[in-house]
Each structure stands twice: as structure tokens, then as C-alpha cells.
Design goal:
By secondary structure, the chain is α/β, with parallel strands linked by helices. The chain has 9 helices and 10 strands. It has a 6-stranded mixed sheet, with helices on both faces. It has a 4-stranded antiparallel sheet with strand order 2-1-4-5, covered by helices on one side. β7, α5 and β8 form a beta-alpha-beta unit. The longest helix is centred in the middle third of the chain and has 18 residues. The radius of gyration is 19 Å and the shape is globular.
Length: about 260
């Protein structure tokens, strides 16, 4: 379990995060959602250990990690730009971290992960020969072979479109479920957060606006900011969200709908 207890972060006189407290269960997928500048990336960096909290504590499985260096936390991150080595092929990128720690994953475990992410036929390809979705899967595999205790994803779908984005969503959920891997995702996209996560943490100006399941956020937004940010920004995508949660949101009409209409085919 990941626990944040009264976490605050300030840079001089500017407070970025204020009194953030929450618990995330093992194997849970949680998205940190909010507009640019709200503090979501700072929160991810605090958990990773790139920056230190001004106040509060960070615990993982009951161990206080607040002042533990990043390299000793056992957490790994997949960056938005993939950060792959262009001079290495896909397989060499995947196993790169095992050069110094070959005992972390066996060859069989690496092979299982390659198959889980559907990368078998791309292993000999150069990075510049891969699509965006394939690069994302390689970056994910390279992180997972190191068996992180916690997986952090920074805008993992922002550079992807359409079916590729949906495929990567499915892969992330499949990996988290199969490996029981706690996953923390930063995103600015409400649809992405609502369709990918078990729970969503919405941040407004450094404070928690709501931390809840996608269904409850859609049905009972905590305040006007949540309602405006989640629902008004979905526009065309909004219909997809309501169809996705149709069984639990029966009878709920999307806000600002012009008039009742038949469901789309």
C-alpha cells in the first residue's frame, strides 16, 4: 500500500501542493488528473523521489520513504517521451537495466513479459522503425523487467491516437492486473483517467478536489470544479464515457445535453 500523509510542497513562497493525504491499495490503478500547473507532476515526482516534500510523509507497505533516495525506493517510471536508446534495438532496450542487475528477472520472465506486451516480432527492430504504440510498449517492458514495487506513468498516452491509444490502455490494465502491480498515472485527459483507472485523484490548485471511482466522480462530482473539468471538457467524448458506465449510471443524463435522444448505434 502507498500512503501519503499530509504531503505539502512549496518552492519558496509558492505552495504547489497542500495537505495531500490518501492511500492506494496494492494492484490498484490510480490516475492523477488535473489542468496544467495544478501540481500533479510534482506529486508524481515526490512519490518517485525526484523531489522531497516540504511537509508530510510517504509510506510504502508501512515503511517511511519520505527521505529515502529515489534509487533505493524500488519504484520505476515510464516517461512521456519513452526515453529509449536509439542505438539499441527493441530487445536490447528491454533488457538494458539487467546488465547491472541480471538476477532481477530470468530469461523466462523476460520472455513472458515480451509476449504479454505483444512485442515478440519487433525485438530486432531499431527504435526509429517502431510506431508510437510499439515504442510505448518497449518502454513499459524495459521498466517492468526490473520488477518495480510501484509503476509510475507520466502522460503515457498523450502522443498516441485512436486504436493505438486504446490498445495501450488495455495493455496497461492487463499488466497491472496480471502482475498485481500498483500503478500511478499522471494525465490531463479526463476520458483517459476515467476509462483506465480504478480510482481517480483530481487536483485543483494543489489540493485534492476528489479522490474516487470513475463512476462516483461522474455520478456525484464533489464540487463545481470537478463537474466542470470532468464533464464540460469531454464534449464528444462524453457520450463514450456515459456508454462505458451505462450499467452503473442508468438514468443519468450528461450535463448540458441539448435534449434526450436515442442512443448512438
Amino acid at each position: 500500500m502507498l500512503e501519503l500523509q499530509n504531503i505539502s510542497k512549496a518552492y519558496g513562497d509558492r505552495t504547489v501542493l497542500s495537505d495531500i493525504s490518501l492511500s492506494i491499495e496494492k494492484g490498484e490503478i490510480v490516475s492523477i488528473l488535473g489542468p496544467s500547473g495544478c501540481g500533479k507532476t510534482t506529486l508524481l515526482n515526490l512519490v518517485l523521489g525526484l523531489v522531497t516534500a516540504t511537509d508530510g510523509r510517504i509510506l510504502f507497505d508501512g515503511v517511511d520513504l519520505t527521505h529515502v533516495p529515489m534509487e533505493k525506493r524500488g519504484f520505476n517510471i515510464v516517461f512521456q517521451d519513452y526515453a529509449l536508446f536509439p542505438n539499441l534495438n527493441a530487445y536490447e532496450n528491454i533488457v538494458y537495466g539487467l546488465r547491472n542487475r541480471p538476477d532481477v528477472s530470468t530469461r523466462s520472465e523476460v520472455d513472458d513479459l515480451i509476449d504479454l506486451l505483444g512485442l515478440r516480432r519487433h525485438l530486432d527492430q531499431r527504435i526509429d522503425e517502431l510506431s508510437g504504440g510499439q515504442k510505448q510498449r518497449v518502454a513499459l517492458a524495459r521498466t517492468l523487467v526490473m520488477k518495480p514495487k510501484l509503476l509510475l506513468l507520466d502522460e503515457p498516452l498523450s502522443a498516441l491516437d485512436g486504436l493505438i491509444k486504446e490498445s495501450i490502455k488495455d495493455r496497461i490494465k492487463q499488466v497491472a492486473r496480471q502482475l498485481k502491480l500498483t500503478t500511478l498515472i499522471v494525465t490531463h485527459d479526463p476520458e483517459e483517467a476515467l476509462t483506465l483507472s480504478d480510482r481517480v485523484l483530481i487536483i485543483e490548485n494543489g489540493h485534492i478536489a476528489q479522490f474516487d471511482t470513475p463512476e462516483r466522480i461522474i455520478r456525484t462530482p464533489a464540487n463545481e470544479f470537478v463537474e466542470r473539468f470532468i464533464l464540460s471538457q469531454l464534449t464528444i467524448k462524453r457520450d463514450n464515457i456515459f456508454r462505458l458506465f451505462a450499467s452503473s449510471l442508468s438514468g443519468l443524463t450528461p450535463p448540458n445535453a441539448a435534449a434526450p435522444r436515442a442512443a448512438a448505434a
